[in-house]
Predict the structure.
Amino acid sequence: MKQIFSFFLLFCCCLSANAQYTLDIAVVNPSNKSIFDQPVVVSLNEFSNINSALVTFNGEEIPCQLDDINLDETFDELCFLVDLKGKERKTYQVTLSQEGEPRIYPARVFAEMLIRNDKVKEKNKHNNFISSITARGDCDNPYNILHHHGVDFESELNGIRIYFDKRQTLDLYGKYHKRLELKETQFYTSPEQKAKEYGDDILWVGNTFGLGAFRGWNGESSTMVEPIKNRTQRIIAYGPLRTIVEIIDQGWEPPMQNVSNLTSSNTKKPTLNMTIRYTQYAGHRDTDVDITFNKDVSNYQFSTGLIDIKGSEEFSDKKGLRGCWGTDFPAGDTINWKRETVGLGIYIPQDNIVKEIPANSNRDEQGNDYTFVIKTSNNKHAKTTGKSLSYKVAYCSDNENFGMHTSKEWFKWLEEWKKDITTPIIIHLDKKSKKASK
């Protein structure tokens, strides 16, 4: 269900005597409707020492991005975005080079991590920038170590921060206009910025899932990601077309209820290392969530879902797509904050769903969730059997001058979103691809 398409080149390529490699990549839209900003991701595992890339269509340059996914100072993936009409096929020309450096394009996404600077009084002007941070499991208050309480990222349509604590909750920023704003507001919009229709925090999350936080499951209820040995947040890619951030939980002891292979002689809780990767593409209000483990966890159960926004209206197709539409204050301060109307959505492949649980009956109080109990895939043909699962989350704000403003509109968008996810673009390498000698 992921809209990240990678492929490996099947021919031998030794670049020690070649400076460039040219590829023709054909992309097909199988649906009848036009699509925009669809990601094409090319694995560079068959190449070495790629330092620059050029993507063109009919001679016109297309913005692209080279990413070092495993942070070993070598580019692993090339990403570019495509627009296609219904049933349209386009062939893009890609030139990979060992020389030069990545081309610079206008930023359409943004990501940021900050440690608070006590010398800075304005909440939206902190400047202790970092790219990674790790806290030990016995860290008393990791939530307040980072400015805006964790890593944040955005596209032109959305803005998300992820709490740096046991909740690892996704909290949301609502916009009025399509633009990047978090560099200026840092999730703390000033009165002057509000007067210019900059966005702001729009969701109270408490201990809930917020927008699709990944948690444990003890057989009866969701559990936080604790105890752990270490918790890390880091930024893998900053843009300009996609940002990638990761949450790494080392030595997590999930609930015993989820483990079926313990014996009387093996009573120690087995620990897991878990990486949760969030990928945000330009032009998208949805976000990819990819979870990987260091071992087979197919006998474990986990949980995720959406906050029930204080008696929100719910939508579910009972096949992995779920959403809600509701209105509430985003903070306890009801004087300086206005009530915000928000639409939330989540899509989980059916193969990963154990059960869908309704919201609690006392829905007029804050703190309730729409819950999924989930598991990893048992697909025997997959290389990562039992070690990974993926889903997507999305949201909208009623403040938007470009989005949805009723539950009916939002739920219709969710249905179209699922169709797009389950009818991905088709990508293959054209036979005309060739080496280019130095």
User: Anything to note?
Assistant: The longest strand covers residues 242-252. Residues 407-422 form the longest helix (16 residues).
